[in-house]
Amino acid sequence: MDGRPIDVRAGAGVVELLGNDFASVLYLSGSPARLHAYDCRGSVAQLAARSTWETVRPDELDALRDWLADPGLRVDRRSGAVRGLRVEPLEPFTRLLARGRYVVTATAPAWAETVVVDPGEHGVASWYWPAEGAAIVTTGPWPPPDQATVAAYRRRIAKGIRPAAVAIGPAGRELRYLLDGHHKLAAYQAERVRPLIIDLIPDEPAPLPRDLFAGLLPDHLREQFRHTFGDWRHGGPPPDGLNEP
Prior knowledge:
seven-stranded mixed beta sheet; alpha+beta
């Protein structure tokens, strides 16, 4: 479905995204949590990593748990088209964003077009886009530890209810960071049903300097991103927003 624009004029900045679809960093409550970039090794490989900071998922992200459990959106089982999105109920969530304009969309991608990416204990994970589909990078434990909650969502999904997860990502759809809905996503995966995802996309990318990105990586991961640093300005607008050589 077409996106709905929203203006966040007094955002709390609990959630902030820097960069674009080449490289990006997700901040939660002012601390860098997840990073993404092309690996630039002559393939379509992507990399997602944990930052050097120990980031705790903010409790504020639970603001819409009840509504998201059954937002009343209609999903076409064959095409995945979503109808009925309203942005007003999202206000308790969207006011957690950094200030700016965003586009809100609701999608239900097929699992063949989706890959769940967890940086895990080693702090990095890779995938190939588009061969493995667009990525949903987790921001909490994966698989989620509360299997009773996953089972409860599975029962709801089996009855035709479509709970929504919420994600943020740059324009391009190769990548999104999962903000809310790890248990829901696991339940959809177990049921092999298209996951309902509400996406928040900044209308204008916030600049991401290369040195800032590099400084957020753990030392043992920097070699894997070496080609990314060398090709920071390769193909399209650079993440830092600067177009001069």
